[in-house]
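user: At home tonight, take the chain set out below, taking as long as you need, and be ready to discuss the fold:
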Amino acid sequence: MNILFVCTGNTCRSPMAEVLFKSAASRKKLDVSVKSAGLFAPENGKASLYAVEALFEKNIALNHSSAKLSKEKVEWADLVLTMTEQHKHLAEQEYSESKDKIYTLKEYVKGENGDISDPFGGSLSDYQKTRDELGHLLEELAKRLSRKSK
């Protein structure tokens, strides 16, 4: 299964989600490929220093270059998980032929509306809170996919 995480600039939330999910999926021995992209990402931008630091605290390396969401990436993905309702709506508008595989992360995992808070421009503490929020949701996602693959 190919999973694509999407946020705004692909420097904070979606790259954090990508590596956190890779870690969770590895523990569950899931056969997945994972990427991330941003709706308004610069090509080859660097991940936020606080995102790198927040993940480093959990012994997870983030060596990341940002990438813009594209038709190719959406077509590659079996599942597109966005960080916010707005990201979902913009992705659905741009890639309407793929609407059936685009969800917010909270919608897909918990069946509820809601956004992942954006730590951009905030303190390390803001990034840690986002990391922890993502971590819980992505552990749930890994459990759910593990049950499906059995």
Summary: Residues 2-140 form a domain with the Rossmann fold fold (CATH 3.40.50.2300).
